[in-house]
Amino acid sequence: MILRLYLTLGLVLLGGTAWFIVVKQPPTVQGVPAVPAIVRLQEEGVIPKGDIPENEDIEHDVFVTPPEDEKRLEEAEAAMGSMPGMNMGATMDGGMQMDKTESAKAEAPDGSAMNMKMDEGSSSAAAGMKMEGETASAPAGGMAMPPVMDEEEAARAMAQQMAGLVIAPDGPFDREITLSMSEWTFSPTDIAVKEGERIRFTVRNDGKLLHEFMFMTMPQMQAITYRARRADWSLFEHEALYEKSLLLPGQEISFVATITKSGSWMFMCMLPYHMQMGMMGQLATPGAAMKM
Amino acid sequence: MENALGASGYTATMLAIVFIVLGLGIAALFAALFLPARWKLKYRMEFVFVVLLVGLVWYADRESTRIFTAYQGEIRKAGVISSAEAAEPGRNFDHVIKVIAFQWGFAFINDEGRISRNAEIVEPGAKVLFRIFGNDVIHGLNIPAVGITAEYEPGVERDLWIRAPEKPGKYLIQCLNYCGVGHAQMKAWLVVREKEA
Amino acid sequence: MASPQDMERMGGIPHWEPENIIGRMDLGTLLFSHDYRHVAIKGMLTSLVMLGLGGLMALLFRTELAVPDIQFFDARPYMSLMTLHGMFMVFGFIIPLVISIMYYMMPKILKTGRLIWAKGAQWSWWTLMVAAAALVISRPDFTWTFYPPMSLRVGGPLVWLGYLAVLLVAISEFLAGAVLFANGWAAIGKWGWSKLPLMGWAALAEGLLLMGSTPMLGLVAIYMLTDWAGLTAVYDAGRGGSTMTFMFMFWFYGHPAVYLPLVPAIGILYTLLPRFLGRPIWSYWSGVVAFALLTVLSFVVYPHHFQPAPTISTPLERAAQILTLAIFIPSTLHVFNWIATLWYDEIPSSARRAVPFRFIVAAIFFLMVGGVTAYVNGQIATDSDFVHNTYFVPAHFHAMFVGFMANMAMAGLYYLYPYMTGRIYSQALGNTHFWFWQIGIFGKVSMMYWLGYAYFPRWVVDYLPLPQWALPQLILTLSAYLIGLGFIVFIYNFIRSASRGASVTGDPWALSRDAATGAEVPAE
Predict the structure, then answer these.
(1) Bond from prior residue into C308 cis (ω within 30 degrees of 0)
(2) What is the domain range of residue B105?
(3) Using CB atoms, which residue from A17, A31, A36 is nearest to C153?
(4) Which of B69, B92, B146, C237 has the most other CB atoms within 10 Å of its CB?
(5) What is the pTM of this model?
(6) What ipTM goes with this model?
(7) pLDDT-based confidence at A122, cuts 50/70/90?
(8) How is C130-156 classified by DSSP, letter by letter?
(9) How many domains does chain B have?
(10) Which of C27, C41, C53 comes nearest A14 by C-beta?
C-alpha cells in the first residue's frame, strides 16, 4: 500500500513539476544592480566618462551575416510586401517593374548598391547571394573598388531609402523626441510619426547596464528571429537600418530621422535577451502600426 | 598544449599521471576480483603507498605554483595597477585592454581608448593584458585557444594576460560563469590579425 | 589478519529476520512512527521519488542539449530544470538516502538495538519535505550554488521561497547530523574507541561534518533573504556588499557538503564488504585515520571552489592548493583498503552472484575514475586552464555522486530489500538495472570529461555547433536516457517483487563459503 502510495505521489509530483516548469513557463526576470560598477569606475577615472570613440578597425568581416538570414529576409519580405514600409496594396515605388523576389534580393545591403542602380534584374541575384562580409572584393564590373566602410554605409543608406526611414547625424527637424532606454523597456514605446516628418531623436541609456540601439524593418527582424536565442547570436552581424552598438549607462546619442514613406519601423536593443524582456518599440505612420 | 599559462608539457604530464594512477587502480581492482592468486598485503605497503601519494602531491603543488607564480609575476611586472592608473603598454605588455563584462556581452577598450563590442583585435603573438571589470554580476572569461579562464566579481578588477595565437583568425572568447539568461550567448571574438602597415 | 579482534571490529551482523515491513506499514506508521526501520524506509522511499524528480529534470534539459540550437526551452525554464536537478539530487536524493540506510543499519551494527533520537530523524524528514515544496513552488533559476548578486536579481517574486528552502535544508541536515553523532557517541560508550565499528566512525564523522557545516549554510540563506528584501547588503555588490564574502561562507558549507553523501556511502561499504566476503576489512586503523583526516581537512580546503581569485599567489591560495591535493589521500586510503580486502582471500560465489556486491564493485571503480581527476582539479594551474567552470567539474562530481554514491546507495537498497519486504527481487532485472547504469554512467562521465577538456561551458542552454561539442553531447544525452531506463527497471523490480518475488527465510546473504573451513557450501 505504501509502495503504491509512493508510486502515485511520485508520478503526480514528477508530472506536475515538469508541467509547472516546461508548460507553464515561468517568466524571465532579471534585476539590475543598484549602482553598476561601470559608473563607479568612471568616477574613479579607470574608464573614460562621456562618449568613448568606437573602434573603427572592427570591420564588417569580423561579424559576418549568415547566409540563412538573407534567405529569411526574402521570405519575410515576400510575405509582407516587397517594399517594407509600404502599405499593402499601395503602388510600387520608383516605377521599378520588378517582381517581389527580385527587389528583395536587390535591396540586400551587401554592397550591391552599385548593381542596383545599374541593372535591376539579373545581376542582383548574384549580388544577393554574397551575404558574407567579404565585400571588399567583388563589386560590379567596371567600378573602382570602394573602401569597405563607404560600401557598408552606402548599403545602409540604400536600405534606409527603401524602407522609408533615413537617418542622418544632424540636420533640420520638425520635432524632438527623447527616447529613454532602461531595463527592460523603452520610453516611449510607440511613436506616431507622419510621412515627410523630420524628427531629432535623443536616445539615452537611463539604465544600469550597457545597451545597443537599432532601427530595423519588420522583415529584417523576422529574418533573424530564428537565431535570436542561439549560442552564436553575439558572434554574427544582424542587418539593421541603423545601429549604435554600445551605449554605456548615462550615455546619449542623437540623430535626425526623416520619414520618407508611410510604414512602420522597429527600434530595439538586440543584446541577448534584452529585446525578449521588452526592449523594443516602433515608429509608425497612421494606420501602419504593426502588432509587436 | 601551448597555453597562456606557458605550460605546454605540464598539462600533458599531469594528465599522464592521472591516467597512470587510474590504470593501476583499475588493474588492482580487477586483479583482486578475478585473478586466482590471492595477495595478503603487508600493512607497511600502505605506508609506502601514502609516501608515494605525498610525493605526487608535493610534485603537483610545486609545478602548479611555479607556473602560476610566473604567470602572476608578469602582471606584477607591469607595475601596481591601481584603479586610478593604467598599466602602460610597452612596459611589459604589447597591449593593455580593458574589458567590461556585462549582462550579456563584453565591451573592449583598447590602448587607443576606442571601444568595441564583442570583438578585439590583436597581432599574432602579442602579449596582451586584459583588465577585466564586471559590471553587474559574477562573470567569467575564457579563451579556449590559449587555455586561460577566470571568474571575477562585479567591481573588482581581475587581470588576465595572454600571448595571442600565432595563426591569424578569429578565436572564441566565452563567459564561463552563470550570469543570467543571456549567459549562453555571452561570447566574443578575439581577432588575431597582422597590423596594417 | 582475520583475528577475532578484527572480526569484532566489524560490528554486529547486519541481519534481521526478513519480514514484510513495508507491506505492513500504513499511512500513520509511515508518517509518525519512531521505529528506526519505519523512519529509514520512509527516508529511502522519499529519496527515490526525489531521484525520479531530479532525474526527470535532467532528462528534460539533456534532451534540449542533445543537438545544438534551441529546440524546446528558453533559458529561464532550462535553468529552472537545472537548478531543481541539482538541488533535488544533492539535498533530496543522495544525502537523505545514504543517511536513511545508515539509520536502518546502525542499530544492528553498533548493537544499540534502536535509533537514538529517532525523533530528530523525523523532524529532519518533515523539514526536508517543506523545503522540497518551497523549491518546486518557487522554481528558481539561480543554479544549485545560487551565486549572488545574480541569485538576488532573478527568479521572480517567489524566489525568496528558494532561499527559504535552502535554510530548511540546512536545518534538516543539522538534525540528521545530530542523530548520527548521538548514535556514534553512544556506540563509543558501548565499544570503546579502539573497537568502534567503522560504521560508528562514519556516523561520528558525518555528524561532525553536518553539524559543523550546516549552520553556515543557514546563515547564508538568512543573508540571502535579508539582502533580497533590501534589509542588508552583505552580498549585493551593487549596494556595497561583497561576493567574496558569499564565496567564503557558502563554500565553507559547500565543500563538506560533497562529503555528506560520501562518508555514509563509505561507511556502508565498510559494513557490506565484510558481510559479503565473510572476513574483516584488511586494515581497521586505515579506515579510522582516513575518516578523521577527511573530516578535518574538508573544513579547510573550500577556497578551491573559487580559485584562483584575485588574491592568487598569496599564502592562503597556496595553502588551499596543498590541502586540496592532500585531501585526495584519505579517499585513496579507503580504496586501497577495499582492494586489499578483496585480494587477501577468496571471494565466495555468493558474493559474485549478489546484485549489491556488483554495485559495490562498480562504486569502487567510479570512485577511482572521479578521484584521480581531483589531482588536476586541485592544481591552480590546470584549474585556470580547462577545469574551472567547464564540464570538467560536473564530470568529476557526477563520477563521484552517481558513480560512487548512487551506486553504493543502490547496493544498500538491494541489500536491505529482503529484510524490508520479506521477498527477494528479480535477479535478472537487478542485473539489467546494474548494466544499464554502469554503461550509462561511464558514457556520461567520459563524455563530460572530454567536453570539459574541450572547454565546453557550464550552465548553457545552447552551444556552438562545433563537432567536438555536438557529438559528445549527443552521446551524453543517450547515456542519460540509459540511466533513466535503468531507474525505471529498478522501480519496477522494487514494486513488483514486493508482492510477487520469492519469499525469503533465513539469511538471504548467507555465504556460500564456510567461514571456518573455507569450503564452498552449495547455494540453496
Answers:
(1) yes
(2) 87-192
(3) A31
(4) C237
(5) 0.90
(6) 0.92
(7) very low
(8) HHHHHHHHH---S-TT--TTHHHHBS-
(9) 2
(10) C53
